[in-house]
Write a structure and sequence with these properties.
318 residues, seven-stranded antiparallel sheet
Length: 318
């Protein structure tokens, strides 16, 4: 789905006055919009490219807030009601998690005042007085993993750890790689935050492959254990590993003969060795290869590839 279609999929959730401002943005700029942000009693903004702009009712993007559209608490309430389909109780998990995925794969995130449960280690029980909403426009970049797939998977099955700093494109690359692998053989996707498949009403809004089974909103431990036991995957895919629970479940998957594809926050391949869980997984042979992604202008670009066992010792330039 093209980005123009993706942004149109959120039109149904915008209050009329905000919708008119977004629709008034020229098509060439509209296609670059990544986020629409509403903050109660402040000004409407959108993120296009790497910059956040104020949006005027005329559709003009500006760095100056002077003529930007105002956002009211009623605007926030309108979006929350429509995104939650007038049924707050049906989306309790999403509310406490801070976001809901809507039709088209876009994500509506929100923040306000947390209601804590003293009986459950003061975990978030609910969120009230929502004051800020961030509508993230889903981006599916098909083909971005083609080269990596040809190099590492076309002629043999491999396990891979994708490392990179925040906003380096790890999830985008992982999504496209899942599509390619899932078109070839049985693949289980543990989509804990529903960022990869963006399931809505049981159907994936993103293309994650014809042979991919999606475990939406499972925590990694339960998702991995269930996938290995009941789906017999060739590949198991998950995003952002690193906890102790991840280690136990991934070790079980490795011992079951499943090939793992996962991502991890890291600014260098050497840094992976400083992460206890990742270091142990590499030592167990969970990953055969590791790649490092660039950031900024190099976002989504593979900087280097190495044997996972040699992270921190030897790098191979792409």
């Amino acid at each position: 789905m093209k980005n123009t279609s993706r942004i149109q999929s959120v039109f149904a959730y915008l209050p009329p006055r905000i919708l008119e401002a977004v629709k008034a943005v020229p098509k060439c700029e509209q296609s670059e919009i990544r986020e629409i942000r509403l903050r109660a009693a402040r000004k409407l903004t959108v993120t296009a490219g790497d910059k956040e702009y104020f949006l005027q009712p005329s559709g003009l993007l500006s760095v100056c807030p002077l003529k930007a559209a105002d956002v009211t608490s009623e605007d926030i309430s309108y979006i929350c009601r429509t995104a939650l389909r007038e049924s707050v109780h049906s989306f309790q998990r999403e509310i406490t998690g801070g976001y809901v995925t809507v039709k088209g794969g876009c994500r509506i995130g929100f923040c306000g005042t947390a209601v804590l449960d003293p009986r459950n280690y003061y975990n978030i029980e609910n969120v009230k007085d929502i004051s800020c909403v961030n509508i993230r426009i889903a981006r599916e970049i098909k083909g971005c993993a083609d080269d990596l797939y040809k190099r590492l998977f076309e002629s043999s099955k491999s396990s891979l750890l994708i490392a990179g700093p925040p906003t380096s494109g790890k999830t985008t690359l992982l999504r496209d790689l899942t599509r390619l692998l899932g078109n070839e053989c049985s693949t289980s996707l543990i989509d804990e935050r529903n960022e990869i498949a963006s399931v809505f009403d049981g159907a994936a809004q993103n293309d994650v492959g014809l042979k991919t089974d999606v475990f939406t909103s499972y925590n990694k431990f339960e998702g991995i254990m269930t996938a290995v036991r009941v789906m017999s995957p060739v590949y198991l895919v998950c995003d952002e590993i690193g906890s102790r629970d991840d280690l136990k479940a991934l070790e079980y998957a490795v011992n079951s003969g499943v090939k793992l594809i996962a991502t991890c926050h890291s600014s260098s391949l050497q840094e992976l060795q400083s992460k206890p869980v990742i270091r142990k997984l590499i030592k167990l042979g969970a990953f055969e290869r590791a790649v490092l992604l660039g950031s900024g202008a190099q976002c989504g670009k593979v900087k280097c590839i190495c044997d996972a066992s040699k992270c921190g010792k030897e790098q191979v330039r792409c």
